[in-house]
Amino acid sequence: MGRNEQCWCGSGLKYKKCHSDRERQAPINIFEAEQKMIALLREGYCSHPDPDSDPCSPRIIKAHTVQKKGGLAEISEAGHVLTAKPSMKEMMESQGKPSPRKVGVNSASVFPGFCNKHDTALFKPIEGETVSLNKDTAFLFSYRAIAYERFAKEAQLKGISVQRELDRGCSFLLQRMIQTHLKTYESGVKVGMRDVDRWKKQFDERLLSGARDDFHFLAVRFDRILPIVACGAFHPEYDVQGKPLQRLGRNSADYDHITVNVTSLNGQTISVFGWVGSEVGAAGAFASSFARVADGRKADVLLRLLFLQTDNLFLRPSWWESLQTSRRAAFTELMMSGTLTRRRSANEFVDDQESVTSATIVGIDSG
Ligand SMILES: [Zn+2]
Ligand SMILES: [Zn+2]
C-alpha cells in the first residue's frame, strides 16, 4: 500500500499516519483506552431544541436521568446504589458477565446533556414531591429519556475512534479482524444514531409547540418503593408475553419506539411508558400488554423488562445482595440480551413467575 494512499481500514487517514507501522507499535492499555472514552463522554452539550430564542446558561451540568431526590435517594444505601453499566475491567474479569457495581448517587444516572438553566426549567413540573401524571408531565419524562438516549448514542459513536487503536502491536490478520468488526459495529451505531435523531426531532417539535395529540402514555403506580429506578428508550420487538411486535432489520426506518422511566414519588414507585405515534402501533401494543399483566405480577414483569431493555438502571444494594445466586445470574443474563454476545428471543420476555418483589398496583393513568 502506498504511504500516501488512504488507509485500508477506512479511517480516512493516510496509510503512513494510520496502519503502516501498527504491528510494531506498543499495544494500547485497555484501561487507558477506557479512560480516554470516559473523557470523551464528559464533553457535553445542551439538548434544548431552540437555544436561539431561549439561550442556554453557560454551564453544562451533570443532568440526572432519574431524579436524585426521591428517585435515587429512595433506593440508595449510605449514598450508594448499584449500576448495571459494567466497566471494561469487570467485563474482562467476569468474562463478559459482569455483576452490578456500586456507584455514588451523585454520579449515578447523570449525563452532561443540559445546561443548568434548561435542566431546571424544563423538568420543574416533574421534580416535586407529588406529580400528577397526565400527558404534559408524562411527556417530560419521555423527553428526558430521549435526550439521554441521543447523548448515549453519540458517545458510543465517539468511542469508536478510541477502539480503532486497540489493534496496536497486533498481527496484520488480527488488525484486519478488529477493523472489520469495528466497521460493522460503526455502521450499526450510525443507523441507531439516525433513528434516535429522528425520535428526538419528533419530541423537540412537540416540546416547542405544546402539541400532545399523538403523544401517548401509560403510568402505573405501585403501593411501595421498588428496589429499582431506570430511564431509557427502546424499540419494542416483543410484548411482555413474548408476542412479536416488529422485526428489526438494518437500515429500515420508522420503527416504533417507546420510553420508560421508573422513579419514586412520595413513597411509591411510578413507571411511565411514553411514545409518539399511533395508539395501536407496536409501542401502543407493548404498553397495553403490560397493562394486561395481573396487578400482582406487574412489579416482577417490570423488573425483568428493565434488565432486558436498558442499562441505565439502578438498584438498591441490599435487595440485590438478598437475591439467590441463581436469580442474580438470571438477571445478569437478561442484561446481555440484544448485545453482540446474545440475540434477543421471544421467551426472554415471557414472565417466568418468579417473585422478587411483592408490590401491587394502586393506580393506572393513561392518555
Ligand atoms: Zn488504518
Ligand atoms: Zn440549554
From TrEMBL:
This is SEC-C domain-containing protein. It comes from Sagittula salina. Pfam families: SEC-C (PF02810). InterPro entries: SEC_C_motif (IPR004027). Gene3D superfamilies: 3.10.450.50.
